Amino acid sequence: MQKCNIITEYNINKDKLNDKYKMAFQKLNLLENELQQQQIEQNNLFTEKYSQFNQKYHKNISDIYDFFIKKLLF
Length: 74
Description:
Layout: H1 2-73
């Protein structure tokens, strides 16, 4: 009888540990997903800012080119 109780107690404790492990693993997955989402948002923001800068840069280059072409032609 005592052996049966020990086995039952062992199984109960094992199940509790497995539940704690599963919960910890789920929390870790949620944190990883949140981190990935933040990284995606930061990458999108960087891409947007870089694109804006690149457009301004090319416009400035174009304006400078146009200015010198006008000076040379007139």
